[in-house]
Amino acid sequence: MLDHIDHIGIAVTDVENAITLYTTLGLRVSHDETVPTQGARAVFLSAPHGPDIELLGALGDDTPVGKFLAKRGPGMHHICYAVPNLATAVATCIANGYEMIDPTPRIGAKGKPLAFIHPKAMGGVLIELYEANNL
After folding, report:
1. DSSP secondary structure letters along 48-83
2. What is the pLDDT of residues 4-37, one digit of tens each?
3. So where are the chain's domains?
4. In the CATH hierarchy, which top-level class contains the domain 4-131?
């Protein structure tokens, strides 16, 4: 069902500072948008090989990323796996008893459909499933 790691999400308190840190290491900003439905600014950084890094800055304290930062501080927020068919992946997760944050996919950054598996179902790790059109 899972094809590859698409990106690793990192919650940050200062997006501009985080961009500087990662671009100094050689990554390049490939996408930057505000995602009101997620209450976050999402900045994707690409490396020549491997998954992207998604920096997530909270748009407010009461947003999912804001609450994450208040509870856990900055750091890894989620791992995102690309799947060829999101509806099938979500149905498979539900059929196998995984608790879904998004039992119905929604649109996220880059306008792509996504669904999150609850960390309780994955040993404490928030997993994002992301439909990749180029698989």
Report:
1. SSS-EEEEEEESSTTSHHHHHHHHH-SEEEEEEEEE
2. 999 999 999 999 999 999 999 999 999 999 998 7
3. 4-131
4. alpha beta
